[in-house]
TrEMBL record, chain A:
Subcellular location: Cell membrane
Record has Transmembrane helix as a keyword: yes
Membrane spanning stretches: 9-29, 116-138, 150-176, 196-215, 255-277, 302-325
SUPFAM superfamilies assigned to the protein according to its UniProt record, in alphabetical order: MetI-like
Organism: Nocardioides bruguierae
Coiled coil: none
Protein name per its UniProtKB record: ABC transporter permease
Length: 335, 367
């Protein structure tokens, strides 16, 4: 088990190297000079060829790419000093470099944005699980009835609406036109500062993610539950004389949870890696929006850092899914 | 329809009704293509301490009829009519909560393929204890566990106190089936429905399981319904045999009568298709031609007529126009058969026996 986890973590590190190197190389060889964004921000958009060449030299883009990549990766582990326009800034570990647009260490900005993204992801995931799974179970128990068909088809319609449209309309109706009480103007306030404002600012984002996500989870849970309830061991449980509730929950849902947990692990990882539409529409400065803006600004250190962050989150959530899976299903042994 | 029970289960003067009585049972399911009649007009009975073997191919209704005994069909879709009496109590139309008290307590079921029939995520001992506690709500967890271990020991699982903490996948196939039997017997049921309990096992293990079932039957004086398509198992276990075809009983009598003086061409076919262990290894198996009948649109007349090799011996095309009744054989008392043939004994002696068992013919030459 521990050997398995170590093995998985090691292979995860290899993946991280590949991801970071790919992003690094893409920018290095990209059509625009990698130093141009820095040059433009430092010279108020008067980036002449001379100045660009100076920044290129200063940022190390004239050196060997592998050596520069090594310096970058070394900084993540030990931290380093970064000199730009003769000004040296200390960038402690984990150093992802200085943002080309703000000149601040990337990690400082990331630390500010992480709680927002985590808040959105945890609240949204919690909502869609507690709505979606019970609805799926209820639908599976009433399989083939009018209620089941109505639920499945209405959720199919809802989930075929593009998410950004759904989120925008929710925002417009609930926050702007109806002005539902308790839901303040969306935005992120740290929970440590003001828990009430944290809830009211994120409520709409959570509801959107929750309602939209629960359509999928209802379908997953329904499918898994229908399958579980048709298994032989459910017939055995009934033949033992167990009450229906025990048959459905202890024997049926217990088995149906395994595929749901698997999907949830991956889904939650994706949410943590950034919810771009949600953050944009509900004005939450999280990781997703930050990454999107950084791509527009060609801010290499931020793009690299967010790509690495997504990769770490997905690798860890995949590993967690496997560990949880082996805990849920005694037939699965990690090796 | 009144049906005479075969002689071995005919109740004695004082004992009243047999433990299980099924009368004119019909089970229908709606499907996308129309209503399926899985079981029709089925009647049989089993006494305590006796074994009824139900034989037939897939789709003959043998499992469907015995699941009806436990009320395991979805009451919303399955339409069940007729009468099923367990120890004198009518269970057709019985409420779910009352039925639940019978299931696993008075009547328990042993399923085939114990790997699928045991829950993969719970320990074997826990699953047994659960079966005990549901009918003994006052029993503590420790008592239930002790009972589970005792039953595992009783069915011959070595180190039962340790193996109780294993999951089903950690058991071998034979041990899983033993555990399944232990679970079925944990509440001392009076009737055990064993649905192909040995089909997934190899022959040596199969024999052990059958021995075990017989031992336990003697010990607990329970009635057994043995559902199988294996005539070897039936010959070993059964006191009475019910042969099913297309959802109906087609032959019903004591095991000896059905195996030695079968009266119905489908039973002949079943007997002919059994390989003979002592026989010539080059001897061909004799399959029954054709396929089981559609339950959606059964053939007119006798359901077996499209596959019957003897239907031209019946005058007037009766086999293809009229369903024969399940009637007592004129030559074998208490033996019921559903066939238009006027003298099945003669056909069996002259055409079937010489093919399947020429040696017995020489021994018992009637001339």
């Amino acid at each position: 088990m521990y050997a398995y986890i170590v093995k998985r973590l090691l292979s995860g590190v290899v993946v991280l190297f590949l991801v970071s190197f790919s992003v690094f190389a893409l920018f290095w060889f990209g059509p625009s000079a990698p130093a141009r964004p820095m040059c433009e921000s430092k010279t108020s958009n008067h980036c002449t060829d001379d100045r660009l060449e100076r920044f290129t030299e200063e940022l190390g883009y004239n050196n060997n790419m592998f050596a520069e990549y090594g310096r970058y990766m070394g900084g993540i582990v030990t931290g380093r000093d970064v000199t730009i326009s003769g000004q040296t800034t200390e960038c402690p570990a984990p150093c992802f470099g200085l943002s080309y647009t703000t000149g601040k260490p990337v990690w400082d900005d990331m630390k500010d944005r992480l709680p927002a993204t985590i808040s959105v992801a945890v609240g949204g995931a919690f909502l869609y699980l507690i709505i979606g799974v019970p609805m799926g179970v209820a639908a599976a128990r009433r399989r083939g009835t009018l209620a089941d068909k109505a639920l499945v088809s209405s959720f199919l319609v809802l989930s075929s609406v593009p998410y950004y449209l759904f989120a925008l309309l929710t925002y417009l109706y609930v926050a702007v036109w109806w002005g539902v009480p308790g839901i303040g103007s969306p935005g992120y306030t740290p929970i440590t500062e003001n828990p009430a404002a944290w809830v009211s600012g994120l409520a709409l984002a959570w509801i959107c993610l929750g309602v939209f996500g629960c359509t999928q989870y209802t379908r997953y849970a329904r499918g898994a539950m229908v399958e579980a309830l048709s298994e032989d061991y459910i017939r055995t449980a009934k033949a033992k004389g167990l009450p229906t509730r025990t048959v459905v929950y202890k024997h049926g849902l217990r088995a149906a949870l395994v595929p749901i947990v698997t999907i949830f692990g991956i889904d939650f990882g994706t949410l943590l890696a950034g919810t771009i539409f949600t953050e944009k529409i509900f004005d939450i400065s999280g990781i997703g929006l930050w990454a999107l803006n950084a791509i527009g600004d060609r801010d290499l250190p931020i793009v690299s850092a967010t790509a690495l962050f997504s990769a770490v989150v997905l690798i860890v959530s995949n590993l967690l899914v496997d560990i949880v899976y082996s805990a849920l299903d005694p037939r699965v042994r990690l090796s | 329809m009144t049906v005479t029970a075969p002689s071995s289960t005919r109740p004695g003067a004082s004992s009243g009704e047999p433990f299980l009585v099924v009368e004119d049972l019909t089970v229908k399911f709606p499907t996308e293509d129309g209503q399926i009649t899985a079981v029709q007009g089925l009647s049989y009975s089993v006494e305590k301490g006796k074994t009824l073997g139900i034989v037939g191919e897939s789709g003959s209704g043998k499992s469907v009829s015995s699941m009806a005994v436990l009320g395991l069909h979805d009451t919303k879709s399955a339409k069940i009519t007729g009468s099923i009496r367990i120890d004198g109590q009518e269970v057709v139309g019985l409420s779910e909560s009352k039925m639940r008290k019978i299931r696993g307590r008075q009547v328990s079921m042993i399923f085939q393929d114990a790997l699928a029939a045991l829950h993969p995520f719970y320990k074997v001992g826990g699953q047994l204890a659960e079966a005990y506690r549901v009918h003994h709500p006052s029993a503590s967890k420790r008592e239930a566990r002790r009972k589970a271990i005792e039953m595992l020991d009783r069915v011959g699982i070595p180190q039962p106190d340790r193996r109780a903490d294993d999951f089903p996948h950690q058991f071998s196939g034979g041990m899983r089936q033993r555990a399944m039997i232990a679970m079925g017997l944990i509440n001392d049921p009076s009737l055990i429905v064993a649905d192909e309990p040995t089909t997934a096992l190899d022959v040596t293990v199969q024999a052990q399981i059958l021995d075990l079932l017989q031992d336990l039957q003697r010990e607990f004086d329970s009635a057994i319904i043995m559902i199988t398509h294996d005539l070897g198992v039936i010959a070993e276990m059964a006191d009475d045999i019910l042969v099913m075809y297309g959802g109906r009983g087609v032959e019903y009598g004591t095991a000896k009568d059905v195996l030695t003086r079968p009266q119905m061409p489908y039973t002949w076919g079943l007997l002919s298709s059994v390989p003979d262990v002592a026989g010539d290894t080059d001897a061909p198996l004799i399959p029954i031609p054709g396929n089981p009948p559609s339950l959606l649109k059964p053939p007119p007349g006798c359901a077996f007529n499209p596959r019957c090799l003897h239907k031209d011996k019946v005058a007037g095309g009766l086999c293809t126009s009229q369903m024969p009744e399940l009637l007592e054989s004129p030559t074998v008392p208490g033996h019921l058969k559903r066939c238009h043939l006027a003298d099945p004994d003669a056909v069996y002696q002259a055409e079937v026996l010489p093919v399947i068992a020429p040696e017995t013919l020489e021994e018992n030459d009637p001339r």
